[in-house]
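pinned: reference chain
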Amino acid sequence: MKSTWFVLFPVLWLCLPLRGAAQTDTEEADALTMPVAKAAFKPMPSKAVLMALIPGAGQLYNRKYWKLPVVYGAFMGCAYAVSWNNRNYQDYLNAYKDVMSDDPVANGSWKNLVPGNVSEEEINSYPTDNPNFTRNIQQRKDYFRRYRDLSIIISAGVYALSILDAYVDAQLFDFDISPDLSMHIEPAFVLKTACMPQMLGVNCRILF
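pinned: its C-alpha cells
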C-alpha cells in the first residue's frame, strides 16, 4: 500500500501545475475574446482646424454631416457669383478699351453691347454720336468689377467661417446642454424695509 502512495503522489503533484496553467490559459483566452468598450469620440480642436483647411473636411471630422450641404452650397454660390461678375467685367472692360482706342471701328468688341436694331453705318458712328454709350460701358465695367471683388471677399469670409465653425464644434463637442428649459412663475413676498414698504409680487424664474 505504501508503495502505491509513493507512485501516485508524484503523479498528482505533477498534474497540479498543469491544471493551474490550463486555467490561466483559459482565463487569458476569455479575456482576449471579451469585447473591449470603445472610448467615446471627442474631436481635437487643433486637428479640426487643420482638417477644415479643406472645405467640409472639418465638419466631416466632427461628424456634423448635415453641415456639408450648407458649406458646399455656400462655396458654390460664391464661386458662381465670382465667375459671373468677372465674366461680365471682362466683357465690359474689353469693350471700353476698344471704344477708347484709336480705331474703335476695327476694335469692335463694343458693338455687341449696342442696344436695339442698329444698321452697320449707325454702329460705326455710335460712340461718336452717343457719348452716353461710352459712359454707360465705363459704369457697367466698374459695377461688375466692384461686385466681383465683393464676391471674392465674401468667399474668403465663408472659408474663414467654415474653419471657425469646425473649431467651435470640436471645442464644444461634449458641452452639456440640459434639456430642462422651463420658466417658473410664482408669487413673491417682499418684507418691509427702511427703503420700501411691504409688497406682494410675482417672481419669474427661467431654468437653462
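why pinned: Residues 45-176 form one domain. The CA atoms of residues 4 and 10 lie 11 Å apart.
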